[in-house]
Amino acid sequence: MDAKKLDFKNDYFDYVICMGNTFGVFPKIKKRVLKEMVRVCKKAAK
Question: For the chain, which residues make up each domain, given as ranges?
């Protein structure tokens, strides 16, 4: 799945975990990916 546009509804997950070297490989999209991770994570878990 494209990390820049996750195919999940807002507030879908309790937690989001990013494993591996994602940001080292794709430093130019780091902010977009982090925003998507926040978007799909439930507000109470933040």
Answer: 1-46
How much is the pTM?
Answer: 0.76
Whether residue 4 contacts residue 32, with contact meaning beta carbons closer than 8 Å, is answered with yes
Query: Do the Cβ atoms of 13 and 42 come closer than 8 Å?
Result: yes
Reported as a single tens digit per residue, the pLDDT across 1-46 is: 888 899 999 999 999 888 777 677 777 888 898 899 999 999 875 5
Q: Residue 7 has what DSSP assignment?
A: S
DSSP 12-43: -BS-----SSHHHH-GGGHHHHHHHHHHHB-G
